[in-house]
């Protein structure tokens, strides 16, 4: 991406100010979540509501530590499992589609684009029917497989696009040196696609961490529930403890925040990759 | 992918290797996309009860579930709500996203950082966004009503009054969807050559004219893709509505997505068949718009 400085640096301070204001408005609900998570029980229904946590309390966060840790651990496990499964399935497929010109590859690519458009609750209902017969309801592997369907089509798309850019000469050279296709894939294509692996992993993790539909239908009430269900039960059970609910929400948002800070460029690349072709 | 020039000879051994690499993902596609979809279709064509759901011997009833759904008094409202929800969300997300993209396209100090911060609502788990909005819009203790009260407007029962619930979920969903529009439209803006703007400025075009004569027309391909993708995504929005209102009160914010879930999982006596039938109507709509999207994208790739 090229940056062309059309504007002289002076005269733009008011744009920065306007930008700050707009960002502030947009992110206000996030601030409110933080604020409520620190508000004392007795101030919760104050009228008007307190704009700042004047008497901050960590009761909400203590409740998270006491009650939500198992949910967080389950979410972490499911997120990592989804990442592993997604990359293992999509990276070889991307290599084949980008470099090996399989007959019927176009149809497969097309099917993945269509697959992305199926509403999640429809998939959930189908999975429910199948898992009921297989006895996979309320199981972690079952939820990992279901969550991976959120990411695999996107991952194949990203890997294909990225691996198409690897120079043919390099693969040719590896072949001349006697490397087979598997060796070429493992030692050259995959290391060179590091950025694609990072982008895919980030989104696969984030989507499975955020998943509510599959969790709600496939593991609801079971021994291993992710954090999204933890929050959902909280809202249902104790309507009064909004500081605990919002504290859980803050903790559940941490992966998104970490990813945004550490890997922002991968995120922006991923968002536009699906929609805009360079 | 569609190639323009016919590829050089494809060696048979490479064909085998290519499909060896594709086998896992193809099996996956069949097992975890095609089969659930097939099961869903099967559900919608049989008369399932809880017992026959487990035993798998439900009688085939053809399109009876679809007839039930069409006759249901919820069908009309659900259709209207789905159309209104989708149309209003799409229009406002796109308009706000485009305005912000144009604004952030001017490179001022902090513009890149602030634009990145705008991604936050899109990255948050939907349950987090939805429960935060639930509390903001709470009738008694919500901040929105407190602010309205401060300027002398009576409190609104955002989530508990049938006349406001749909508006409330639309507001929350627009907030979630703006970042996607902003990022995609912003990357579209970057492919418009700066020389065009310089030439227009030399010819005396003001900012308003430059937007309508250059930016908007040249952004049309990206806009089309953004809107179509948004359409497919918005049609299937479920989490936000379910968490905030469960489609209520009295079905006043029910869309096809929440209705389908309500039928299948939300009641004590699940109606799997009708639930699957509603879901399949939604799949049909999503696939139709999805195919339009693919056509548009392919046409753009050629030109």
Main features:
heterodimer, A: 278 residues, 2 domains, 12 helices, 74% helix, 0% strand, globular, disordered N terminus, B: 303 residues, mainly alpha, MetI-like fold, 15 helices, 72% helix
Q: For the record, what is the CATH homologous superfamily label of the largest domain in chain B? A: MetI-like
Cα separation of the termini of chain B:
16 Å
CATH class of the largest domain in chain A: Mainly Alpha
What's the tally of helices of chain B? 15
The averaged pLDDT of chain A comes out at: 85
Number of strands of chain A: 0
User: What is the CATH C-level name of the largest domain in chain B?
Assistant: Mainly Alpha
- The shape of chain B is globular
* Shape field of chain A: globular
Largest sheet of chain B: none
Give the integer mean of the pLDDT values of chain B.
86
Residues in β-strands, percent of chain A: under 5%
- What would CATH call the homologous superfamily of the largest domain in chain A? MetI-like
For this entry, what is the oligomeric state of its chains? Answer: heterodimer
**Computed Rg of chain B:** 24 Å
InterPro entries (chain B): MetI-like (IPR000515), MetI-like_sf (IPR035906)
Membrane topology (chain B): Multi-pass membrane protein
Subcellular location (chain B): Cell membrane
Protein name (chain B): Sugar ABC transporter permease
């Amino acid at each position: 991406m090229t940056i062309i400085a059309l504007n002289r640096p002076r005269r733009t301070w008011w744009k920065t100010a306007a930008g700050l204001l707009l960002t502030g408005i947009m992110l206000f609900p996030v601030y409110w979540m933080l604020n409520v998570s620190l508000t004392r029980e007795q101030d919760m229904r104050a009228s008007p509501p307190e704009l700042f946590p004047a008497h901050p309390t960590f009761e909400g966060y203590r409740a998270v530590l006491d009650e939500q840790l198992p949910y967080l651990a389950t979410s972490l496990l499911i997120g990592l499992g989804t990442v592993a499964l997604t990359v293992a399935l999509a990276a070889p497929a991307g290599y084949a589609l980008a470099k090996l010109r399989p007959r019927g590859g176009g149809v497969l690519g097309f099917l993945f684009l269509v697959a992305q458009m199926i509403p999640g609750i429809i998939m959930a209902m189908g999975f429910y029917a199948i898992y009921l017969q297989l006895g996979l309801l309320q199981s972690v592997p079952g939820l990992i497989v279901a969550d991976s369907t959120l990411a695999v089509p996107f991952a194949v798309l990203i890997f294909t696009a990225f691996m198409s850019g690897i120079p043919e000469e390099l693969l040719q050279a590896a072949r001349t040196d006697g490397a087979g296709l598997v060796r070429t894939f493992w030692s050259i294509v995959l290391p060179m696609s590091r950025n694609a692996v990072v982008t895919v992993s980030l989104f696969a993790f984030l989507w499975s961490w955020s998943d509510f539909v599959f969790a709600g239908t496939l593991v609801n009430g079971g021994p291993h529930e992710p954090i999204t269900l933890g929050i959902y039960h909280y809202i249902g059970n104790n309507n009064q403890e909004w500081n605990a609910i919002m504290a859980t929400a803050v903790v559940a948002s941490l992966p998104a925040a970490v990813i945004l800070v550490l890997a922002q460029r991968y995120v922006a690349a991923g968002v536009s990759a699906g929609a805009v072709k360079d | 992918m569609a190639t323009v020039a016919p590829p050089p000879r494809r060696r048979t051994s490479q064909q085998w290797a290519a499909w060896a690499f594709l086998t896992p993902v193809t099996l996956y596609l069949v097992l975890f996309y095609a089969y659930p979809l097939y099961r869903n279709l099967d559900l919608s064509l049989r008369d399932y009860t809880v017992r026959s759901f487990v035993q798998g011997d439900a009688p085939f009833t053809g399109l009876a579930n679809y007839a039930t759904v069409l006759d249901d008094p919820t069908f009309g409202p659900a259709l209207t709500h789905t159309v209104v929800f989708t149309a209003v969300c799409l229009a406002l997300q796109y308009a706000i996203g485009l305005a912000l993209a144009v604004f952030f396209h001017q490179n001022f100090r902090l513009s890149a950082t602030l634009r990145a911060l705008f991604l936050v609502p899109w990255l948050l788990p939907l349950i987090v966004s939805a429960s935060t909005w639930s509390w903001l819009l709470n009738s008694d203790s919500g901040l929105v009503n407190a602010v309205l009260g401060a300027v002398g407007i009576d409190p609104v029962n955002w989530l508990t009054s049938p006349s406001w619930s749909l508006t409330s979920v639309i507001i929350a969903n627009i907030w979630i969807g703006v970042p996607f529009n902003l990022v995609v439209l912003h990357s579209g803006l970057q492919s418009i050559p700066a020389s065009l703007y310089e030439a227009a400025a030399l010819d005396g075009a003001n900012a308003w004219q430059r937007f309508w004569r250059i930016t908007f027309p040249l952004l049309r391909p990206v806009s089309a893709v953004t809107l179509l993708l948004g359409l497919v995504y918005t049609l299937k929005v479920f989490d936000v509505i379910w968490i905030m209102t469960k489609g209520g009160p009295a079905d006043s914010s029910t869309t096809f997505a929440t209705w389908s879930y309500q039928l299948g999982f939300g009641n004590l006596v699940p109606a799997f068949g009708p639930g699957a039938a509603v879901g399949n109507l939604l799949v049909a709509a999503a696939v139709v718009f999805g195919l339009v999207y693919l056509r548009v994208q392919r046409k753009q790739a050629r030109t």
